[in-house]
Amino acid sequence: MMKKGQNSNHPKKGDKTRVEPITELKDIRSIKKMLHGNPRDLALFIVGINTNLRASDLCTITVVQVKDLKVGDELVVHEKKTGKERRINLNKDCVDAIQCLITSFDSARNNDSQLFRGRQGEINTVGVNYLVKKWCRMVNLKGKYGSHTLRKTFGYHMRVQHKVSIPVLMTIFNHNTQKQTLDYLCVQPDELREVYMLGVG
User: Fold this and answer.
1) Pairwise CA distance, residues 9 & 18, whole Å
2) Whole-angstrom distance, CA of residue 123 vs CA of residue 120
3) Residues 137-171: b if buried by 16+ CB within 10 A, e if exposed
4) Would you give per-residue pLDDT tens digits along the chain (201 residues)?
5) Can you say how many angstroms the Cα of residue 105 is from the centroid of all Cα atoms in its chain?
6) Interacting residues of 180 by C-beta distance below 8 A, sequence separation 6+
7) How far apart are CA 88 and CA 73, in angstroms?
8) SS3 for the chain, per residue?
9) What is the rounded distance in angstroms from the CA atom of residue 96 to the CA atom of residue 111?
């Protein structure tokens, strides 16, 4: 039985997180369409899949950090896990979603208010985990999904769709080896298969 406040997506000691990225663009589009009338959830999803931020760091973003940002501006976050400063350049999708969320607020928010808080108060990693599982279930995705899915989805599509190099992705995710990055993004089996299918001569 899960204890109060425990993240069901957090692995037991010695285990690894085994959630998957959302690999199909049609599924990403389906989730966006489904969340269209919910600015908070839509912005959380879009920022999550367009950055390498962990759910714990998404939850720390405040209104003042993003309210005046324009496309290409840097969002500066201090990672909860590592304590390191992370600088993220926000693309148009992120900025548009954030501005839509801010304009949807029923009343003025304090600058230091959590950006993704809901009607019932602040959201945490457990809440993000619950939401991601729900979204994936609602579009009939089969597999294991959770809060880490957002970050993995970003990396997966940077590699598969945009062909970002493994060394660059290693830097983005602060990994020590290329194999670690390939395993993390769940792309290694597909890339190995593609090599074998090329043929010689």
Assistant:
1) 9
2) 9
3) eebebeeebbbbbbbbbbbbbbbbeeeeebeebbe
4) 444 444 444 444 444 558 999 999 999 999 999 999 999 999 999 999 999 999 999 999 999 999 999 999 999 999 888 888 989 999 999 999 999 999 999 877 888 999 999 888 899 999 999 999 999 999 999 999 999 999 999 999 999 999 999 999 999 998 999 888 888 888 766 767 777 777 786
5) 23
6) 170
7) 8
8) CCCCCCCCCCCCCCCCCCCCCCCCHHHHHHHHHHCCCCHHHHHHHHHHHCCCCCHHHHCCCEHHHHCCCCCCCEEEEECCCCCCEEEEECCHHHHHHHHHHHHHCCCCCCCCCECCCECCECCCHHHHHHHHHHHHHHCCCCCCCCCHHHHHHHHHHHHHCCCCCHHHHHHHHCCCCHHHHHHHHCCHHHHHHHHHHHCCC
9) 19
Question: CA-based diameter of the chain, in Å?
Answer: 67
Name the residue type at position 35.
L
Domain ranges of the chain: 25-198
Q: How far apart are CA 183 and CA 67, in angstroms?
A: 36
Q: Residue 178 carries which side chain, given as an amino acid letter? A: Q
Which residues 6+ apart lie within 8 Å of 105 measured at CB?
A: none
161 Cβ neighbours under 8 A, 6+ residues apart: 25
CATH 1.10.443.10 corresponds to the domain 25-198: yes
Beta strands 74-78; 85-89: pairing state? antiparallel
